[in-house]
Amino acid sequence: MGSYSFGMVGIPWIIVTEIFPINVKGSARTLCNLLNWFASCLVSYTFNFLFEWSLAGTFFIYSSICGLGVLFIAKLVPETKGRTLEEIQSSLTDILQ
């Protein structure tokens, strides 16, 4: 839980604040917060069951999920430094088409 809290938990909020336009930022943040809490609850709920099953297996399952998250971010999340919101949205449109 500590590693998750220091690592992956803040990324959705960073992405939401940089990618979405102002008129949908409130709704996007709400949805992001809901999904983030759901993921935290899912990790908390499944950890004890997986830990009883296998210590190494639990580590590899959670580390694989984090690795997939890193790949997703590296491949699909655009760089936003020094770019306008319109440039970011056009690059996202190019990715989705």
TrEMBL record:
SUPFAM superfamilies: MFS general substrate transporter. Gene3D superfamilies: MFS general substrate transporter like domains (1.20.1250.20). Its main location: membrane. Residues 1-81 form the Major facilitator superfamily (MFS) profile domain. It is found in: Membrane. It comes from the Eukaryota. The chain crosses the membrane at residues 6-24, 31-51, 57-77. GO terms for cellular component: membrane. InterPro entries: MFS_dom, MFS_sugar_transport-like, MFS_trans_sf, MFS_Trehalose_Transporter. This is Major facilitator superfamily (MFS) profile domain-containing protein. It comes from Quercus lobata (Valley oak).
